[in-house]
Write a structure and sequence with these properties.
eight-stranded mixed beta sheet, 12 helices, 2 domains, BirA Bifunctional Protein, domain 2, homodimer, 25% strand, 16 strands, OB fold (Dihydrolipoamide Acetyltransferase, E2P), alpha+beta
């Protein structure tokens, strides 16, 4: 294949004969020549193409507006202009596809709201091009992180007939006609089926066979909440490890975050510069601090003490036994610790049945990793591996032993201490890009009333 | 973290002090000692643990049946037994979780049908452990293949309000109550929504911005067909490249298959040996031949000639203009070419609207890669980038310009030649593992009447 703009910009030496295809970002004309900035999406930057006015093909130049697709043959030479090492002196210029004056991305300074209405074109902008290159690199880095550590990727099912936590509104999946008086057993799966909210329970089954596994797939919530942090469809990473306790679980979670910030500095440097300039001025500094500062840990009980003593007026009062709210989490990470902090040993009553009960009788081996600017990014726990404890917790939660009999089998046959966590991929992306609305880190976001494209 | 069995088996030298955790596969007792084979899922093999009858912990041994989880401390020493380099002379043995006589995986020789009913336990067997380790390695190899070639991973939406090809039965996604007389606009997304059958159209939008992209996600078909090749939920890989024609598309597809077979030999050697011995005796040889033989190509028209002249009685008659059936595809790959073959330039009338029309007026720039034993594994095409041709094709297919106006924008603004393909992940897995039923390469398969676990 021909070299990308990214390859050409990284050239070691000039080259008499190169061909590049891409989209024109800007055009400037002088008497002697025209300058086209051509990008192909391979990297943040475009390459400058100089079209001499004496070339036969220069007659085409006047048709070429922002957004047009061109193919250029010419010579790669050192650029006299500042800020760019190389440019192309064109010999041949072909127009692949024009873009006329109705092209919506000609002018700069569109609002995110407008750009969401043209989700098929917005990845052509600097902002969304950056965000989606970062999304791709983070995705690969996550696979690499787990593969290097001996984890197996398991594709847990998207369609499920059970509900992981008994919590969260679920989407129903059906082939029945809406409004028809059909029986559930006439449906495709012979019973009601839903979109998964978590692959954890199935992940546990595979960890109890293959040792260390992770999932990385779409999950769904049918919550009718229109906030900047919620989408109906989002991607989640869920590692699960056999022979693992809460301590090792927290260490892996902290290292996971750290690794991804490193990738941002090492593999997304141009994007990070741009995002810091135009989206969040504090971004680079915040990521650097998070990377440099050792992770700190607080028990839930300590965290509640700190919040109570803070003298801060919170919207939700702080009381041992209540869930921490985003305002509490952000105070702990941003003001108290001034960096990432892991909270562990939460009250048993506010956590799901599968978390391992601590000896104190009132807490479970749960943990959340909190980040400045974001709040909770990871939630996890050691799982209850003791059959009697698990059964008691299920009874308390009113869950049916029958429905979970396969899950109980994991404790019946060769039960082992195991632990895992879930990381919201979009929340991670918001943290590393500084983008504040979840709709702007998802290629085509699904939210109440919106399933466009 | 402590070393896995896979690490211990690959040790360079003995070690006075190692700890290993895992599940007991077999136990043999002699007067002087007991032998436990312990596996932790990290690799195909287990490690032999020798428990001397004089050790205090040897009193535990009689409780330890197949499936029990143990933790062993001891010395890693060269094994006198054949077929294994290392074994562990135990000093300490702890039982983490027992497995009693009701453990279903004690005896060997269960049928796949029975093992599907215990999908939460079957990854503990040699067969399914192998299949799911292969699945994980193939998944990572696919990400690596595209990342090394400058592709960006795009997470196209799972929930969609449109249907990629107007073809295929779709699952509906809803929050309305079944049977209630609700209007579509009362549903979560304000209109009917479905599970995606392909991310191609959205992938094209991103290729026309970022150059080279791929998707790798779940796709869905609500077809009520109970065959060994169909599942309601399966994973698909869909690369899409701007500035790319059918020729380059076919080359990438052929290289993609070749790369994954190489991974099978290099990274799944133990699994390949096992699968060849116990699942498909011809597997290793077939993969080797596929790798060694250069990919061949035939136009659809040539393929039809060959089939007609073959003298073979096919169930479906061969006629120019008709789709090739699996029996035809397998004849071409297995008997005529005796290896992988790519068929290109299919009749326009049997292909979707978005494929690029050839100058002959009757074919389109479509291609399928066929493999011995499998038939079609990849289908792709160059896409129609010319607005007038695309509009004419849409009219012929009865599609609404309005609904596809965003897709038409890709041709309105800077249109470029582009191409892509789709590869069924499970079909690939069936090819590289020799496993004949799609239900046996999916962690928890979804088929008509089945959404268990």
């Amino acid at each position: 294949m021909r070299p990308s703009v990214s390859h050409l910009l990284a050239s070691e030496s000039p080259s008499p004969n190169v061909t590049v295809s891409g989209w024109v970002r800007t055009r400037r004309d002088s008497k002697a020549c025209s300058f086209l900035e051509v990008g192909d999406g391979s990297c943040f930057r475009g390459i400058q193409v100089v079209v001499d006015a004496n070339l036969p093909c220069s007659s085409l130049v006047q048709q070429i507006l922002t957004g047009a697709a061109v193919e250029v043959e010419g010579e790669l030479v050192a650029s006299p202009a500042s800020g760019q090492k190389w440019e192309i002196q064109a010999r041949e210029l072909r127009v692949l596809g024009l873009a006329d004056g109705t092209y919506p991305l000609q002018k700069k300074g569109h609002t995110p709201e407008f750009l969401r209405t043209i989700g098929h074109l917005r990845p052509r902008t600097n902002l969304y091009g950056s965000v989606f290159r970062v999304r791709s690199r983070m995705s690969f880095a996550i696979h690499r992180f787990f593969n290097e550590r001996g984890f197996f990727h398991v594709h847990t099912p998207i369609i499920t007939a059970s509900d992981c936590e008994g919590a969260g509104e679920m989407f129903r999946v059906t082939t029945l006609k809406q409004g028809a008086q059909s029986k559930p057993e006439e449906d495709f799966f012979g019973k009601p089926a839903y979109l998964t909210v978590s692959g954890q329970l199935q992940g546990e089954a595979f960890a109890c066979a293959m040792g260390k596994i992770y999932t990385f797939g779409p999950t769904f919530r049918a919550e009718n909440s229109n906030t900047t942090r919620h989408a109906a469809e989002f991607w989640m990473i869920e590692p699960e490890m056999a022979f693992c306790d809460l301590e090792a679980d927290m260490s892996l979670a902290e290292e996971n975050i750290r690794d991804l910030i490193r990738v941002m500095f090492e593999e997304c440097a141009d994007e990070l510069d741009f995002l810091t300039k135009f989206v969040d001025k504090a971004l680079t500094q915040r990521l650097r601090q998070t990377l440099d500062k050792p992770s700190e840990r607080l028990s839930y009980t300590e965290a509640v003490e700190i919040l109570k003593k803070s003298g801060r007026k919170f919207e939700y009062p702080v009381e041992w036994g209540e869930a921490l709210q985003t305002e509490h989490e952000r105070f702990l990470a941003e003001e108290h610790i001034k960096g990432p902090v892991t909270i562990f040993d939460y009250p048993r009553a506010i956590k799901p049945f599968y978390m391992r009960q601590n000896d104190d009788g009132r807490t479970v081996a749960a943990m959340d990793v909190l980040l400045p600017g974001i709040g909770e990014i990871i939630g996890g726990s050691q799982r209850e591996e003791r059959m009697d404890h698990l059964l008691a917790a299920m009874r308390l939660s009113g869950l049916s032993e029958d429905e979970y009999s396969w899950y109980l089998d994991l404790r019946r046959f060769g039960s082992v201490p195991h632990a895992g966590y879930g990381m919201g991929f979009e929340r991670l992306l918001m943290f590393v890009t500084g983008v504040h609305n979840i709709r702007d880190v998802i290629p085509f976001a699904r939210t109440p009333g919106h399933a466009d494209f």
